[in-house]
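Annex B, item 7. Sequence and C-alpha cells for protein A, then protein B.
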Amino acid sequence: MNDEKTTNTPNFISLNEAAAMTKGTRITFIPGVQALYAEALKNICYVKDVPVIRALHPFMGVDKETGQDRQARLYELTTQTSLPTMFYDEERPRNVWTEQLALAERIGSPSSPALIPESFEHRVEMFGLCAVVLAEDGLVWNMRILNDGPLGRKYGYSDAASAAAPAKITEVIALIDSRLQQQAERGSKYLVGDALSAADIYWATMSMSVTATPPEIMPVTQQNKGMLMLFANNSKIPEIAKVLSKRIEEHQRYILTTYCETPAVLGGDLL
C-alpha cells in the first residue's frame, strides 16, 4: 500500500477559494468519486510529490433553487467546464491533460521519477500511448458514449457511435496488451523503455473504467458505487472481456499499488 502521504478525510475548499489563492497546486474534484481524469492527475502529482489542495468541482446542470447554471463560475474562470481544473500559484488554469502533465513534471520534486522521458523517441511512444487512452476518440471517450446520458451526450453519443465504441475500446486494450507483452520480452515492466512514465500512470488509472477494481485499490463510497458497478459491467461486454488479459490486470495492480495512492483517498461517504 502507498498511502503514507495522504489522509482518509481530505479537506475540500471552494472553487472561489482555489481561484483566489496565489500559492500552491489546487485541483478540482468531486468528493467520493474517482472521476477518471481527476484521479489520474492526482496520481501523477502523487508520483511527482506535488502537494495537492483539493477544491470542489461544480456539478453539471442548473441549481433548482436559484435557476443558475452551477458551472457558470467555473466557465468564467476557465472558459470550459470539464473535470479537473488545475491551478498553480498565479499561473493560468490548466484543463488539458498534456498541459497538466507538463506542469506537474516542472513543479515536481527533483528526486521524483521523470514521467516525460528525456529521449524524444520515448516521448513519441509515451504521448502516443497516452493519446489513444485519453484523447478524442480514445478509450475513455468511447467508454463515455457506450450509454446515453448527460455525459455521453456531451461527448457525442448517438446510436451509431455507441455501437462502434466497444470495437474501439477493444482495439486500445489489445494495443496496450501487445505493448506490455513486447516490453516483458525485453525485461521491462513498463509501457515505455525501462522506467515508469506517464503512460503507465494514465493507463493504470484509466483502465479502471473497464475493469472490476478491488476495494483495496478503489474504495466504495456512497457517491461512486454506481460508477464502480458501471465500470465492472464494462469489463463484461463480450468484445472487451476477450482482450482483458492477465497482463493488463497485473500491470494495473503493479503501477497503482507501487507508485500511486492506494487505497485511493476520495473523501465522500465510505461504505
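Protein B:
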Amino acid sequence: MDYQALYNQKLTTAAQAVKVVKSGDWVDYGWCTNHPVALDKALSDRRSELYDVKLRGGVTMWMPEVCKGEDAGEHFTWNSWHCTGVDRKIIASGMGYFSPMRYSELPRFYRENVTVDVAMVQVTPMDSHGNFSFALGCSAIADMLAKAKIVILEVNRNMPWVYGLTGSEINIRDVDMVVEGDDPPVATLPAGGEPTEVDRAVANLVVPHIPNGACLQLGIGGMPNTIGSMIAQSDLKDLSVHTEMYVDGFAAIAKAGKITGKHKNLDKGRQVYAFAAGSQSMYDYMDRNPEVMAAPVDYTNDVRIISQIDNFISINNAIDMDLFGQVNAESAGIKHISGTGGQLDFVLGAYLSKGGKSFICMSSTVTGKDGSLKSRIVPTLTPGSIATDPRTCVQYIVTEYGMVNLKGLSVWERAEQLIGIAHPDFREQLIADAEKMGIWRRTNR
C-alpha cells in the first residue's frame, strides 16, 4: 500500500477539516499534551455558526481557543475528565463541567457509554508504515478514535515518538482527515521549586521503605517529585516503573542508573506509563527510547495488572483526610480541584502486590486564603468533599510528623494514630472532636 499517497489524499487544512462539526455534536480533544492546537483555533473561528457543541478533554495544559471570549459558553460546553488549573478556570467561567471517573475505566466509557461525533488529536508525523504515534498521551485515545464517527489528526513534528502496546498508534487507513499544524512546542509542566523542609521530611520517611527491585508509581506534585529526586540520589538499585503519569522524576532516576526493570514481573525492562507531561528534557529522553513504553490506561491502571508486579510502591498526594481514614484528593468542599484519576487504582493494586505498599503523602497543614493555618487532618471531611480513597483501602499515611499504617486498626486506633502525625497545634482539638464522635480512647501511651 502507498501510505504516502493515502496521506496526501486525506491531507487538508484545519479550517476545512472543522467544517464537519455540527451544532449539537460531541467533539473530543484527546488527552493532555495531545489536545489539538490548529484545529482548536479553526473550530473557535466557527463559533458564531455553532450552538451546543459539547467538547471533552483531560488534564488541559493551556486555555483552548474555544473557551476564550465572553460568548464562548453560548456556543461550546467544556467537559473535563481530569482537572488542572486551566480546567478549573473554564468551570469557574460557567461553561465547563467535570466528568467523574476512575481513570482505568475511561477506555470502556468510550467503548460502551459515550458518543463521539468528531475526534481531534495531536500526533507525531506518520512513519513509513503509515502509523502515527500518540506520543505522550496514549491514555484512552485509541478507544476514543475507534468510537468517533470522524477522526481528524493534527501532525506536530515536535511530538516525541514513544514505543508502546497496541493502542498507542493509529494507521492512516483509519483516519478521515490529516492536518499539518504549525508544529508548536509540546506543552511542558513548569519545573517545581526547591523542595520544602516538609517535602524533605516526608521523603525521608518514605524512601527507607522502598526496597531494591521495587516498581514505582509516582503521582504529580512536590512531594512525589522530592521522593523521586531522593531515590535518584540513593543507593537503591534495579528499580522499575509502572505508572499512570510519567514525570521528570522517573527520567532523573533512570539517568542516575537506578532503573533496570530486571526484576519486574510484567514488561521486564520497560518503563510503562499511560500519559506523560514534564520538561522538554524528559520528552527528549522518551523519544524512541526502547526502555519507555506507552500503554492504554486500562492496562496501566488495572488493579489486576498492578497486583501482579511484586514490591509495587505507590506514592500519591492528598488534599486532606479525616480521622476515619477517608482520603480526599480531588476537591475542597464542593470546589473541584482535580479528579479521582488513578489514585484509588494504585492504592488497591499496590496493597495486593506481593511486598507492595501504598503511601498517601501530605503536609500536616495548609495556609488558607485568609492567611490562617489549617490542619489537613480533620475530624470529618468538609461537606461536599470527595472521598477519593475509602477508609477501607488506605494503607500508609505520611506527614512531616510521622508515618502510620491504618491496615488492621479500629476506629479509635486510627484516630489516635492520625492525630499523632497531625500538626501539634491541632492535636488537642482533634482529640476533643474524636471524643465527641465516640472514636477516642485514652491509652497508656
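Comment on protein B: The chain has a mean pLDDT of 95.
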